[in-house]
Structure prediction request, 335 residues.
Amino acid sequence: MKPKYRWILLDGRHLMWRVTMKLASLSTELPGGDRVPTGGIYGFIKVATKVVEDWGDRRGCTLVICWEGAGAHGDYGHRTDLYPDYKGNRSASTIPDDIRAYLDTMDDQQRVLKGMLQRAGWNQAWAPRFEGDDIMGTLAHRLTMAGETDIMIYTADHDLHQMVDEHTTVISPPPTSGTIRKEKVWDANAVIEKHGVPPELIPDLKGLGGDSGDNIPGVPGIGPGWAAKMLNAYGCHEEVVLTALAGEVLCGEQDGKKWQSPAKSKDVATHAEQARISYQLAVIRRDAPVRFIRRAVDHKKLLAALRAFKMKTLMMPNAWQDIRDIGARPFPPHI
Prediction:
């Protein structure tokens, strides 16, 4: 039996990417003969309502779509300020033309979707110059501080694994390839099994081992395996760095076998500042100035949009009621 959650924080940009890619061929002919892509809009609403249906507490579940407020023109806020090459591998100059066209299509659909979700009354959150990770992290932290439990973050981004604790669980959607078609529940044990360290040490792991996906450098020569070894021996990245800077050889024990490496110790000492910066890049902020997109509930306009886009499935009684139910639970203003 699946666990049920009273709070679902959903990674909007990631879900938009997945559904737009999967339904790239879905389009609608508008009056005048023009065809516009609509797969991202349809798929997003369909999947989001299914997530609430499958994982939401029947006694009441509040969904919040968390959007990126950073990323325009390579600006990732405090992370870009700290390290200008952060996510530099995602700059426009490195993206092939066909993928760029796909992203432009997705951006267009996302703008329309946000307006439709406003009409539905769905909660949508963002913060200028902050990433979606920080929005989810901040809201999860606020809820926990307010005494709330049963919090779920829905994303495939492993960075969010650092938010897992007794109150917050991360659930990732099924992989887009391969034979596994089930969602993955990430509790503390699952995080340890995957990364070799507990959730709170995920930023330390990336500080030492780096993250090629986000262009976080870490320490050259120290991958995630060695980083996990060091953290299990010393407790945090700063202790590893201080030990190496003191000229000591990093050592420890793993699976009953002792290890030490003068070469890795030298690497850490040489790139100590880079390790510290990488750690800061990997830390999800819990104090982002979260803003909520204004709710403008208007079911007539929403139905008109669904009708114009020929999304008949979403207008069926059960689906339409699900959309309305999600919009009937605004996020508490005091949190």
